[in-house]
User: Fold this.
Amino acid sequence: MSGFLPENPVVIKMDMIAEIRRLHFVENETVSALAKTFKLSRPTIRKHLKTVKEPVYPTRQHQPHPKLGAYLDLLQTWLKNDASLPGKRRRTAQRLYEGLQVEGYLGGYTAVQRYVKDWKQARASSPTIKQAFVPLAFPPGETCQFDWRHETAVIGGVEQTVKVAHFRLSYSRQMFVIAYPRETQERVLMPIIRRSLFWRRTKTHGVRQPENGGRCDLRR
Assistant:
């Protein structure tokens, strides 16, 4: 088992320090032998032989970018442009690093990789378009919910399938339903016009529940 913290491989766990002290003070292991066993330097072994409490390591709040700083605006622009592209077309940290080198960047790859990782994590934690939601409270007459359905109707003694547009005002829950015998452009446009005439409103927002489970807001 590793004696280092997984989130920071250079920080030694307290149980490893306790084992070093036990081997030295109880088993009489020498500092050189302990350094060889734990693959640590002798000054590090001597330091932890004096450790009684768990060491506290300062955490860095802001990562400095002494060489990358002059290229941060350019790198951010590239990252924002890539974010709008399909996944396969986005540049990796290595490709971005190579692009910065062409622009004159003389720093190392690690600084670029770390910044790209932090930028993507920060972006992932912020709401995206797919995470937006339609409000659940609506002013009177402003918004209606609608959807299309296939219904079975008997017309002239013949059972047939008709295309039905369902509308419901989000505030009062008043409904408006209109059916058409077939799918045409008229079926898409006329229900919206007749809905407006029925409710005597021309600026009602239609909120539809699409097949993929999300929501879309169609404004007329």
